[in-house]
Amino acid sequence: MSPHTPIVYIISAPSGSGKSTLVNVLLAITPCLDFSVSYTTRPLRGSEQNGKQYYFVSREEFEQMIAADEFLEHAFLYGKDYYGTARRFLREAGEKGHDLLLDIDVQGAAQIKQKLPDAVSIFVLPPDRKTLEWRLRKRGEDSNDVIDRRLEEARREIENYDKYDFILINDKLEESSDSLQAIVESERVRRSGQALSAEEKRIVDLADRHRLANARHRVLPILASFRTPQASARP
Length: 235
Ligand code: ADP
Ligand code: 5GP
Known about the structure:
Elements: E1 8-12, H1 19-29, E2 33-35, E3 38-40, E4 54-56, H2 59-67, E5 71-77, E6 81-86, H3 87-96, E7 99-103, H4 106-115, E8 120-125, H5 129-139, H6 144-158, E9 166-169, H7 173-192, H8 198-208, H9 212-227
The structure holds adenosine-5'-diphosphate and guanosine-5'-monophosphate (5GP).
């Protein structure tokens, strides 16, 4: 039997857009889709568990892994910490006949696209700046200073939206979740090369609405909301 070539899905988003929420739903309902648990040197936060959200390692361990060429990509983020995707997850997904989902930043996404041009990249966006600020406050994890920094970072990240294949504006959670599932399914169906059933055609059509070329006009007002100084949603 020929080995399975995993479809690699990359998902990126400004913090607070709802990416983790969407990824958790996607993983719960999608068969044969593995999550690539990244390595990081940042400290463990809140309820995180080693091996679940990340493998938490020392800087020395991370640098040894770089030297041993164990990473498919890695980035040094926020001038502070390393984050990296281990090659072994791709190999293991292939052996199991599974596909692989990477939750990585814009730099990591660009590195993966260079190495694996068939990877499918998805950028998740909030509907506008005010909504993002509100979600960050509602999540209750960050101080006002950190929230202000995240909003500034969000603007820079969103400027890169056109490097992605698909754009998902996370307004209504259920709709976004359906669309994300459609993007994943449509790639599987398309690559299988088989004739499409009516249901598969519906899924492909839904996914196509989120292709960069079809979604660009919806991103521009969001980007504008981040470029225009706005009144704070701070209570
Ligand atoms: P991220 O992983 O992108 O940083 P989270 O998944 O932690 O974001 O979501 C940030 C907050 O927004 C959480 O409180 C989450 O419950 C909420 N949220 C996510 N998606 C939506 C949505 N579509 N509508 C309203 N709230 C949402
Ligand atoms: P956090 O520290 O909030 O969990 O994540 C910060 C950022 O690091 C997020 O944008 C997340 O997508 C990104 N990230 C997580 N793992 C990796 C990785 O392995 N590689 C890269 N390049 N970015 C990652």
